[in-house]
Amino acid sequence: MTKRILIICRKPPYGSSLGREALDIALASSVFDQSLSILFTGEGVWQLHKGQKGQQVDQKGYDKLLSAFPLYEINDLYVDAKSIEQRQLTQDDFVVDTQTLNSDEVKQLMAEHDVLLNF
Amino acid sequence: MILHIVNPSPFDSQALADCLKHISEQDSILLIENAVVAADQSSPFLEQLMSHTVYVLKNDVEARGLQDRLHEHFSLVSDDGFVELTIAHASSMSWY
Taking the CB of residue B24, how many other CB atoms lie within 10 A of it? Predict the structure, then answer.
Protein backbone atom coordinates (compact mmCIF):
# COMPACT_ATOMS: atom_id res chain seq x y z
CA MET A 1 0.00 0.00 0.00
CA THR A 2 1.28 3.46 -0.86
CA LYS A 3 2.04 5.57 2.14
CA ARG A 4 0.72 9.09 2.16
CA ILE A 5 3.49 11.64 2.65
CA LEU A 6 3.07 15.10 4.16
CA ILE A 7 5.92 17.57 3.87
CA ILE A 8 5.72 20.47 6.33
CA CYS A 9 7.62 23.63 5.39
CA ARG A 10 8.24 25.90 8.39
CA LYS A 11 11.43 27.70 7.41
CA PRO A 12 11.70 30.90 5.38
CA PRO A 13 13.48 30.75 1.99
CA TYR A 14 17.15 31.65 1.30
CA GLY A 15 18.44 31.84 4.93
CA SER A 16 19.08 28.09 5.01
CA SER A 17 18.86 25.21 2.57
CA LEU A 18 16.10 23.40 4.49
CA GLY A 19 13.19 24.83 2.55
CA ARG A 20 14.87 24.03 -0.73
CA GLU A 21 15.62 20.46 0.36
CA ALA A 22 11.98 19.93 1.30
CA LEU A 23 10.88 21.00 -2.17
CA ASP A 24 13.52 18.75 -3.76
CA ILE A 25 12.10 15.81 -1.81
CA ALA A 26 8.65 16.71 -3.11
CA LEU A 27 9.86 16.65 -6.73
CA ALA A 28 11.78 13.41 -6.25
CA SER A 29 8.78 11.73 -4.58
CA SER A 30 6.43 12.80 -7.34
CA VAL A 31 8.68 11.16 -9.95
CA PHE A 32 8.13 7.89 -8.07
CA ASP A 33 4.37 8.44 -8.04
CA GLN A 34 4.15 8.87 -4.29
CA SER A 35 1.00 10.30 -2.77
CA LEU A 36 2.19 13.66 -1.54
CA SER A 37 0.86 16.80 0.15
CA ILE A 38 2.74 19.89 1.27
CA LEU A 39 1.81 22.22 4.12
CA PHE A 40 3.35 25.69 4.43
CA THR A 41 3.15 27.11 7.94
CA GLY A 42 4.86 29.78 10.05
CA GLU A 43 7.77 31.43 8.26
CA GLY A 44 7.53 28.74 5.59
CA VAL A 45 4.72 30.62 3.87
CA TRP A 46 7.28 33.13 2.53
CA GLN A 47 8.53 30.39 0.19
CA LEU A 48 5.31 30.87 -1.80
CA HIS A 49 5.64 34.63 -2.16
CA LYS A 50 5.47 36.16 -5.64
CA GLY A 51 8.18 38.43 -7.00
CA GLN A 52 11.23 36.64 -5.56
CA LYS A 53 14.67 37.37 -7.05
CA GLY A 54 16.78 34.53 -5.72
CA GLN A 55 19.66 35.43 -8.04
CA GLN A 56 20.32 38.50 -5.85
CA VAL A 57 21.67 36.11 -3.21
CA ASP A 58 23.09 33.64 -5.75
CA GLN A 59 20.32 31.09 -5.28
CA LYS A 60 17.64 29.61 -7.47
CA GLY A 61 14.24 31.14 -6.79
CA TYR A 62 11.74 29.13 -4.77
CA ASP A 63 9.01 30.70 -6.88
CA LYS A 64 10.33 29.08 -10.08
CA LEU A 65 10.58 25.69 -8.46
CA LEU A 66 7.09 25.95 -6.96
CA SER A 67 5.51 27.07 -10.23
CA ALA A 68 6.78 23.80 -11.75
CA PHE A 69 4.83 21.75 -9.19
CA PRO A 70 1.61 21.47 -11.27
CA LEU A 71 3.71 19.92 -14.10
CA TYR A 72 4.82 17.26 -11.63
CA GLU A 73 1.21 16.79 -10.60
CA ILE A 74 1.90 18.09 -7.13
CA ASN A 75 -1.37 19.85 -6.49
CA ASP A 76 -2.13 19.23 -2.83
CA LEU A 77 -0.58 22.40 -1.45
CA TYR A 78 -1.90 23.81 1.81
CA VAL A 79 -1.22 26.90 3.89
CA ASP A 80 -1.98 27.57 7.54
CA ALA A 81 -4.60 30.34 7.75
CA LYS A 82 -3.19 32.00 10.85
CA SER A 83 0.35 32.11 9.46
CA ILE A 84 -0.71 33.99 6.33
CA GLU A 85 -3.02 36.29 8.25
CA GLN A 86 -0.23 37.26 10.68
CA ARG A 87 1.97 38.16 7.70
CA GLN A 88 -0.77 40.07 5.88
CA LEU A 89 -0.59 37.66 2.94
CA THR A 90 -3.44 36.32 0.82
CA GLN A 91 -3.74 33.61 -1.84
CA ASP A 92 -3.12 36.34 -4.44
CA ASP A 93 0.41 36.80 -3.12
CA PHE A 94 1.38 33.20 -3.90
CA VAL A 95 2.99 31.76 -7.03
CA VAL A 96 0.85 28.59 -6.97
CA ASP A 97 -2.70 27.75 -5.98
CA THR A 98 -2.96 26.63 -2.38
CA GLN A 99 -5.78 25.73 -0.04
CA THR A 100 -6.03 27.62 3.23
CA LEU A 101 -6.61 25.44 6.28
CA ASN A 102 -7.69 26.50 9.75
CA SER A 103 -6.05 25.07 12.84
CA ASP A 104 -8.38 22.04 13.13
CA GLU A 105 -8.00 21.24 9.44
CA VAL A 106 -4.20 21.28 9.82
CA LYS A 107 -4.47 18.77 12.68
CA GLN A 108 -6.73 16.62 10.53
CA LEU A 109 -4.25 16.82 7.63
CA MET A 110 -1.41 15.60 9.85
CA ALA A 111 -3.51 12.74 11.22
CA GLU A 112 -4.43 11.59 7.70
CA HIS A 113 -0.85 11.10 6.51
CA ASP A 114 1.42 8.13 7.26
CA VAL A 115 4.78 9.84 6.86
CA LEU A 116 5.41 13.32 8.23
CA LEU A 117 8.53 15.13 7.05
CA ASN A 118 9.12 18.35 8.93
CA PHE A 119 11.47 21.05 7.63
CA MET B 1 -2.04 9.47 17.04
CA ILE B 2 1.28 11.17 16.38
CA LEU B 3 4.50 11.18 18.44
CA HIS B 4 6.01 14.66 18.17
CA ILE B 5 9.76 14.49 18.76
CA VAL B 6 11.19 17.90 19.67
CA ASN B 7 14.92 18.44 19.50
CA PRO B 8 16.08 22.10 19.98
CA SER B 9 15.80 24.26 23.08
CA PRO B 10 12.59 26.34 23.06
CA PHE B 11 14.77 29.39 23.77
CA ASP B 12 16.77 28.77 20.62
CA SER B 13 14.12 27.81 18.10
CA GLN B 14 10.45 28.00 17.21
CA ALA B 15 10.22 24.19 17.02
CA LEU B 16 8.37 23.59 20.31
CA ALA B 17 6.08 26.60 19.82
CA ASP B 18 5.21 25.36 16.31
CA CYS B 19 4.64 21.85 17.62
CA LEU B 20 2.28 23.11 20.34
CA LYS B 21 0.43 25.15 17.73
CA HIS B 22 -0.30 22.14 15.52
CA ILE B 23 -0.57 19.25 17.96
CA SER B 24 -3.85 17.35 18.44
CA GLU B 25 -5.17 16.47 21.88
CA GLN B 26 -4.50 12.73 21.60
CA ASP B 27 -0.91 13.18 20.36
CA SER B 28 2.18 12.83 22.57
CA ILE B 29 5.40 14.80 22.80
CA LEU B 30 8.90 13.43 23.35
CA LEU B 31 11.53 16.00 24.36
CA ILE B 32 15.08 15.04 23.42
CA GLU B 33 18.52 16.71 23.35
CA ASN B 34 18.38 20.47 24.10
CA ALA B 35 14.57 20.41 24.19
CA VAL B 36 14.62 18.70 27.62
CA VAL B 37 14.95 22.14 29.28
CA ALA B 38 11.33 22.75 28.28
CA ALA B 39 10.38 20.33 31.09
CA ASP B 40 12.56 22.06 33.71
CA GLN B 41 10.79 23.63 36.71
CA SER B 42 11.79 27.09 35.40
CA SER B 43 10.28 26.57 31.95
CA PRO B 44 7.61 28.99 30.71
CA PHE B 45 6.18 26.14 28.60
CA LEU B 46 5.10 23.95 31.53
CA GLU B 47 1.45 24.94 31.47
CA GLN B 48 1.06 24.25 27.74
CA LEU B 49 2.94 20.95 28.03
CA MET B 50 0.68 19.81 30.89
CA SER B 51 -2.27 19.43 28.53
CA HIS B 52 -0.46 16.66 26.64
CA THR B 53 1.25 13.38 27.41
CA VAL B 54 4.91 14.35 27.54
CA TYR B 55 7.96 12.08 27.65
CA VAL B 56 11.51 13.25 28.25
CA LEU B 57 14.58 11.29 27.19
CA LYS B 58 16.36 10.13 30.37
CA ASN B 59 19.93 10.23 29.07
CA ASP B 60 19.57 13.80 27.91
CA VAL B 61 18.01 14.86 31.22
CA GLU B 62 20.76 13.19 33.27
CA ALA B 63 23.52 14.51 31.03
CA ARG B 64 22.35 18.01 31.98
CA GLY B 65 21.79 17.17 35.67
CA LEU B 66 18.09 18.07 35.44
CA GLN B 67 16.71 14.82 36.89
CA ASP B 68 15.57 16.43 40.19
CA ARG B 69 14.13 19.51 38.53
CA LEU B 70 11.44 17.94 36.31
CA HIS B 71 7.73 18.18 37.14
CA GLU B 72 6.13 14.81 37.95
CA HIS B 73 3.79 15.22 34.96
CA PHE B 74 6.67 14.25 32.69
CA SER B 75 7.73 10.62 32.25
CA LEU B 76 11.37 9.78 31.72
CA VAL B 77 12.05 7.26 28.95
CA SER B 78 15.16 5.31 28.06
CA ASP B 79 16.48 4.87 24.52
CA ASP B 80 14.57 1.56 24.35
CA GLY B 81 11.48 3.41 25.56
CA PHE B 82 11.98 5.88 22.71
CA VAL B 83 11.83 3.00 20.23
CA GLU B 84 8.73 1.59 21.91
CA LEU B 85 7.01 4.98 21.72
CA THR B 86 7.62 5.24 17.98
CA ILE B 87 6.07 1.77 17.57
CA ALA B 88 3.09 2.63 19.77
CA HIS B 89 2.17 5.70 17.70
CA ALA B 90 0.69 5.62 14.19
CA SER B 91 3.34 8.05 12.96
CA SER B 92 6.07 10.27 14.32
CA MET B 93 7.22 13.72 13.40
CA SER B 94 10.51 15.43 14.19
CA TRP B 95 10.60 19.12 15.07
CA TYR B 96 14.05 20.72 14.75
Answer: 15
